[in-house]
Amino acid sequence: MLIKPSQLILVSVFVIFSNCSQKSEPVFSISGTIPTLKNTTLYLSKQSENSSIKNSVIDSLLVDENGSFSTHFFIEPNLFTLVGDGVSIPLAIDKGQHILIEGESKDNLTISGSIDTQLLQQYEAFRIESLNRLVKSVRAEIKIKENQNSSEEEIAKLRSLEVENYNEHIKELTNFVKTKMGTSIAILATASRWKSDVDFEFLQKLVTNFEQKKPKLESTTYLKSRINQLKKSSIGSVFLDVSISDKDGNNIVLTPEKATYTLIDFWASWCPPCRTESGLLINLYKTYGNKGFEIYGISLDTNKEKWLFALEKDQRNWPNGSTLEGFETPIAINYGINSLPINYLIDSSGKIIAVNLHGKKLEEKIDSLFKE
Fold first, then answer.
1. CA-to-CA dists, residue 297 to 130, 250, 294, 327, 336, angstroms
2. pTM, 2 dp
């Protein structure tokens, strides 16, 4: 069939328009009505995985005189926060979702249209409950004991329980991800709490599955980098060379080959469980220091005076260094360390043989190694 020139022009315009429409199709939308926010502006910001970088504002939503707002977005799925006039709403949004936010006031809102946001809310609720039950309850007990001038031994036992319970808390969160979240965009909010010693095989598989479903997302790149961080600190990996300045400004280099076993201890003066564990480390160092046991301390302090005071008071008389950059210390970033205390036990080849052992478990491990 022949097409007249005029028809050809119409067809060409239609094709061009169709292609533009396909390319310009919104990824997701957000709308809602909150009467108490009338005539204001809400801002959508993308959450940053890097704690040192503030969330970046993506777009704004104008709220009309009735408290209603509606906007389409042409950005890829991610974690977001909708903020403005006292409102802060975390959102996990995937492609094709149409989020509806409704409520008589900013303190009583319902969110629908996104299973990912529902999962994010469920995870956050569980995280808070687990943290209160396992960790904050112990911290409250410690405070009571301190006010009662209880013995250092009693408080040390509770500090040890706090660390043990925090690790249990991380296990509960990982199990929540494993049993309830699948490959939802919401898992991005959980990744900062992943640990190499807690079901690492599952986490690797999770990120592989996520990449298969969402291969080109910025979020996928982040999750892969997170797994690579954790892989560096998993059992069987070789701890990279470390060089850091001590209190006098001299470089101290991690040299595993000079010891039979070395404990790489990340700590800080502001971390009570770290400070309490000093006593155990002193005893281990006295017992096994001349038998091939070394400790290499890396402080994540930011205040030099407080670091030096803790070094002296706690008698940490083994190699200790700090860049005074806190969690932005390069080695901490390299290994994805975002909580304390944490440690790595390596052999003379630098291979990691144990991760995050504390208290009695650490003591038993070191005892067993030197009795073999």
1. 30, 14, 10, 15, 17
2. 0.86
